[in-house]
Amino acid sequence: MNILVCISHVPDTTSKINFKDNQTVFDTTGVQYILNPNDEFGLTRAIWFKEKQGAHVHVIHVGTSEADPTLRKCLAIGADKAFRIDTRAVDGTSVAGELATFVKNNPYDLIIAGRESIDYNGAMVPGMLAALLDIPFVPNCVGLEVNGNQAIAEREIDGGREKLKGNLPMVIGGQKGLVEESDLRIPNMRGIMQARQKPFELVPAQQITAATNDITFEKPLPKQDVKLVPAEDLDQLIELLHKEANVI
Amino acid sequence: MSVFVIAESENKTLKRNAGEVSSYAVALASKLGVNCTAISFNADNADVLGQFGVTQAINIKNAPLHFDANYYASAIVKHVQSLNATHIVLGSSADAKFLAPILAAKLGAAYVPNVVALPTNYDPLTVKHTAFTNKAFAFTQLNSECNIIGVGNNAYGNIESPVACSVENVEISNLVSNLEQVSIEKISGKATIADADVVVSGGRGLKGPENWHLVENLAEVLGAATACSKPVSDMGWRSHDEHVGQTGKPVSTNLYIAIGISGAIQHLAGVNASKIKVVINNDPEAPFFKAADYGVVGDAFEVVPVLTEKLKAFKAQR
């Protein structure tokens, strides 16, 4: 089985989010980038398939060389080969388009992406990719088993779970649950050394036109201080929620 | 040119968020001076959309009874093309977010999810939406001939403007599905995190799963969904589908009540989009107080039962 894991490179959760150039560009000053947490759950599941079922695991990113350390980390964790489609990613449509062209030329049995990136939260790329390739897609995936040519994937729905069955190739939008947090791997020295020898290929971009573009950004208004209500006077809380906040 | 709105249903009845997306679509159509048509699947009460100003609806009456993204997308594509729809409005439920990217790729449409208001500009179409896990807003331009807007939960609200809605029940054939449903587990008779106006959430401060009746009783009085913090789901006190936060579910309710949750940045990222946040915690230094609108510093085991009783009395009066 050949698995392709799509990787996003995102600001760490604790990053201060600021914008520059008249609020038009995300200010990366002092921002630490990490492997998108949802992708990491997917990658770890892919490596499980490698270890238990002899799968080959490739990782791919659409973007600039800024993400190379993140791709190296994926190799150090256990992926066999990395690809980077060399372009500046603009939106979900253009990224999915680039990936679809790549997969049409290099078929895989299973394509795992994260449920969403933690920066733009669009949850767009995996579904678009599946539709462009005309293959099944399961988002918010919390369980995945592969048996021959068939996969059973479980997705989280509002208020529960749904188990779906389909033929490979399939696209998965992975998240926590696909593996547990305790299963995530920290690259060890041996892995890091091996990663240097593993193939890393640059792929020229198709320069697919984006369908959307960000014009400006805005930060939420600073919050007013919390109104503290004494624990002995909960009537006051109910009054505030009813009359002031208008939510009950 | 016309606006097309996707009204979700479940068990043959429209879901609550159908009102919100319809209200948004009707307002959008009126700004653009064009018609608005709704589409639903297996909804016996599609005419209810008239309450929110929708004058015509198409109801596909022979669709699979469970949501099937590929099938639904194919059915929608057919109608989008025959109606020459230029703007498609849908919601932010798990199903809507499953459907929208597939639909966008099939139509070659631009798509922006998590939109919080009517467009800030109509030519070119520009919308405001949340980004960076609710730590910022982005203003994004949609540049295709057909543009899809995903309205964030509780971002716009239900706007009533009753009209008569004529429903055309249609049957559709020759559509295939590429996934088969093996099983579904769903809590019934209880509000879900995605669909609730109010969410009551518990953290490690509750000390153990045996104390969850505090959360559940308060939630019941408010008609709220229950949720939990990450450590609570990690320790198996509650199932992962209740976990809200960055790696769990996002919450954008009108009222979010956090009991015994300290407010780690990953948790706040997931709940920031909620309008009013109430924090009950015995630690006055808990970071969540900085992000809250109202706070009670006190022991949850004392405060919550009293609050529950008082709210019950308050609700009974009204």
How would you explain this protein's 3D organization?
In chain A, 28% of the residues lie in helices and 32% in strands. In chain A, strand 3 (19-20) and strand 4 (25-26) form a beta hairpin. Chain A has one domain (2-218): Rossmann fold (3-Layer(aba) Sandwich). Chain A has helices at 37-53, 68-77, 92-105, 125-133, 189-197, 234-244, and strands at 2-6, 9-11, 19-20, 25-26, 33-35, 56-63, 81-86, 110-114, 137-147, 150-157, 160-167, 170-174, 200-204, 212-218, 227-228. In chain A, the strands form 3 sheets. In chain A, strands 11-10-9-12-8-1-6-7-13 form a 9-stranded mixed sheet, with helices on both faces. A two-stranded antiparallel sheet of chain A has the order 2-5. The model of chain A has no long low-confidence stretch (mean pLDDT 96). Chain A is an alpha/beta fold. Chain A is globular, with a radius of gyration of 21 Å. Chain B has 318 residues and is α/β, with parallel strands linked by helices. Chain B has 2 domains: 2-170, HUPs (Rossmann fold), CATH 3.40.50; 198-317, Rossmann fold (3-Layer(aba) Sandwich). Chain B is built from 8 helices and 18 strands. Chain B has helices at 17-32, 69-83, 94-107, 213-222, 230-234, 265-271, 288-291, 300-317; strands at residues 2-6, 9-10, 13-14, 35-41, 56-60, 87-90, 110-115, 121-122, 125-131, 136-142, 147-151, 166-170, 180-186, 198-202, 225-228, 255-259, 276-281, 294-297. In chain B, the strands form 4 sheets. A 7-stranded parallel sheet of chain B has the order 7-11-6-1-4-5-12, with helices on both faces. In chain B, strand 14, helix 4 and strand 15 form a beta-alpha-beta unit. In chain B, helix 2 packs across helix 3 and helix 4 packs parallel to helix 8 (300-317). The longest helix of chain B has 18 residues, at 300-317. The N and C termini of chain B lie far apart (46 Å). The chains are: A alpha/beta (248), B alpha/beta (318). At the A-B interface, helix 3, helix 4, strand 9, strand 10 and strand 11 of A face helix 2, helix 3, strand 7, strand 9 and strand 10 of B.
